[in-house]
Every structure is written in structure tokens, then in C-alpha cells.
Amino acid sequence: MATEQRRTEELRNYAGLIWSIADSLRGPYKRSEYGHVILPLTLMRRLDQAMEDSKDAVVAEAERRREQRVSDVLWVRPGRLLSCQSGMRSSK
Prior knowledge:
With 92 residues, the protein is mainly α. The protein has helices at residues 2-25, 31-50, 55-67, 80-86. It folds into 2 domains: 1-43; 51-92, no CATH class. The chain contains 4 helices and no strands.
């Protein structure tokens, strides 16, 4: 039980530290608007990291399709280009 309480306290301390850093970096945004900025940036960074190994292949294929004037460059079928070029399989 004591280790559980200590772990909870550590998590609260980390959360407090993260939020204090976020508050100082927040700049002109109000607290209620901060999530509208940081969440999309966090998501884009995570996707960039997840696709890092296949990014060059996906970008090259998108450029090839642009040159061929293929409409809807990245979404021939939902996620098809990304899943083919990245080597990831769709869950559907």
C-alpha cells in the first residue's frame, strides 16, 4: 500500500512539473485554448516518430502521384498509400 501511495505521489509530482513547464511555454494562449494547440502538435510528432522508418517511401510515392496528377494523393482508399508504403497493415 505504501508503494502504491508513493507511486501516486510521484505521478502527481511529475504531472505538476509537466503542467508548470507547459504553463511557462504556453505563451499568449489561455489555459482553455492550450489543448487546441498542443494536442495536434503532440499527435503530429507521435505520427512522425511512428512512421520515421518509412517516411521517405511515403513522401516519394506521394510526390510521384502528384507528378502524375493523381487526385487525392494520399488517400486513394482510406489509408491505402500510407499502409502500403509504410509496410503497416490496416486493421480492417
